[in-house]
């Protein structure tokens, strides 16, 4: 579903060259539940931005659902993000002047979906995350966990092929964070592709596949056979 080949991303700050990603290659299959883990500054957020078509690589190729991203125009990238990708962020990014229903409807407004259909799909998404009874509340009237559920509903409403979640439990207490992780597990069980970006090994441990990134490079998987031999010796 997603193919990265030899992707490098270089930023120039104050005359200094910063290699945020360094020759990264990665495949993500449809229906996978993946965590991308690494410390602050490791390149994991840059990787998510490129995977999510929020940024383009300095070199290398990115293919999403058969489309070569680096060749797409800004308008095409906006359409791809709106139609194929859902985003969930640590700080929810809900608009405070809109109620929950209106926040969830926003991606469909950009897609030109008629008002009646927007309402139907938004309510269905809120029902899926257990937030239908909070549809008329404003974000300030919700707990952190409820705001994150509303943000997940917004990410789901255009039926995206893949959901990127950037530190989605980082602003929540442990119990609420576990509830949100369980929601992602349920979405994945329904066939959604989920990419979870985190710095927390305990959170990364819940995903079937874990990708570790450091200094802009993906770390190789440990050889479990060699680890077993060391233990025996």
From TrEMBL:
Signal peptide: none annotated. GO terms for molecular function: ATP binding; ATP hydrolysis activity; transmembrane transporter activity. CDD domains: ABC_MJ0796_LolCDE_FtsE. InterPro entries: AAA+_ATPase, ABC_transporter-like_ATP-bd, ABC_transporter-like_CS, ABC_transpr_LolD-like, MacB-like_ATP-bd, P-loop_NTPase. SMART domains: AAA. One of its GO terms (cellular component) is membrane protein complex. Keywords: ATP-binding, Nucleotide-binding, Transport. Coiled coil: none annotated. Residues 2-233 form the ABC transporter domain. Belongs to the ABC transporter superfamily. Macrolide exporter (TC 3.A.1.122) family. This is ABC transporter ATP-binding protein. It comes from Limisphaera ngatamarikiensis. The lineage of its organism: Bacteria, Pseudomonadati, Verrucomicrobiota, Verrucomicrobiia, Limisphaerales.
